[in-house]
Amino acid sequence: MPKHENPGQVPAATRALAVLRALARAPGPLPAGALARELDLPRSTVYHLLTAMIEQGFVTHLPEERRYGLGVAAFEIGSAYSRQEPLQRLSRLVLSRLVDAVGHTAHLGVLHGREVLYLIEERAPGRPPLVTDVGVRLPSERTASGRAMLSALPNAQVRALFPGRDAFVGAGPPSSLPELRRMLAGVRRVGHAVETDEVTPGFSSVAVAVLDHNGHPVAALAVTRSSGPAGDGGEEKLVASVKAAATALERRLHGGGRR
């Protein structure tokens, strides 16, 4: 919750959702005091919100640890989200238009631990099948999609995902956290990630992260083409098209329109 907001002027539903988001971001259950500090709310208000959400099953209290975690109702909502596949449904038109614009195969992936899980592949006519098919998982640090999403994560979360050299897969860079951080800094600087001949020899990919309203990467859109010079400003046009598609998907996810 923004620090400048007066907690008394914020609707209770907004504060309750802020508590749920804080618990969802945390690596484990949290004390009420930690929630109060993070959300800049009085502790009494946090206890009141927690009590109401415990009654509804969205929060569970761990009395021995004096901590609070997500409840079964929160899990049920998450499971319903997975069943309804809103991300895939909202993405298909965007991917189809992207393929029409660039003439190359496009795909949508999400972070799953240290891996990228590919949810959709929209194959361009006449293009060969790719390793990034639906349901395939690849090391995030090796793919353009993974690098795009990792670049949007806080440094602490990247460090938690890659605590040591044994967390890295493959022989080439990045093979250490400092190498990965330098790579991700470059991705943040230009706003997109690239990968050439690392996933499949002879192919390269450009990817852009899709962010939620909190700036968290919920997915990445990527286009894969044959390696080699794009020619005549082709690479710049490709990057611009992927960025425009990611922006369009963000608008759809945020409820900002159907276009």
Keywords:
259 residues; alpha+beta; Arc Repressor Mutant, subunit A; Beta-Lactamase; 2 domains; six-stranded antiparallel beta sheet; 9 helices; 8 strands; 19% strand; elongated; disordered N terminus
Lay out the secondary structure:
Layout: H1 12-25, H2 32-39, H3 43-55, E1 59-62, E2 67-70, H4 72-84, H5 86-102, E3 105-112, E4 115-122, E5 137-139, H6 144-151, H7 155-161, H8 177-190, E6 193-196, E7 203-211, E8 217-226, H9 234-253
Antiparallel strand pairs: 1-2, 3-4, 3-8, 4-5, 6-7, 7-8
Helix pairs in contact: 1-3, 2-3, 5-9, 6-8
Shape: elongated
Spatial order of strands in the largest sheet: 5-4-3-8-7-6
CATH architectural label of the largest domain: 2-Layer Sandwich
H and E string? HHHEEHHEEEHHHEEEH
> Mean of residue pLDDT?
86
- Level of helix content? 40-55%
* Helix-strand makeup class: alpha+beta
What fold name goes in the CATH topology slot of the largest domain? Beta-Lactamase
What's the number of extended β-strand segments? 8
- Unreliable segments of 5+ consecutive residues: 1-9
Could you explain the architecture of this structure?
It comes from Kineosporia corallincola. InterPro entries: ArsR-like_HTH, GAF-like_dom_sf, HTH_MetabolicPath_Reg, Tscrpt_reg_IclR_C, Tscrpt_reg_IclR_N, WH-like_DNA-bd_sf, WH_DNA-bd_sf. This protein has about 260 residues and is an alpha+beta fold. It folds into two domains: about 70 residues, Winged helix-like DNA-binding domain superfamily/Winged helix DNA-binding domain (Arc Repressor Mutant, subunit A, Orthogonal Bundle), CATH 1.10.10; about 170 residues, GAF domain (Beta-Lactamase), CATH 3.30.450. It contains nine helices and eight strands. A hairpin with a 6-residue loop joins strand 6 and strand 7. The N terminus is likely disordered.
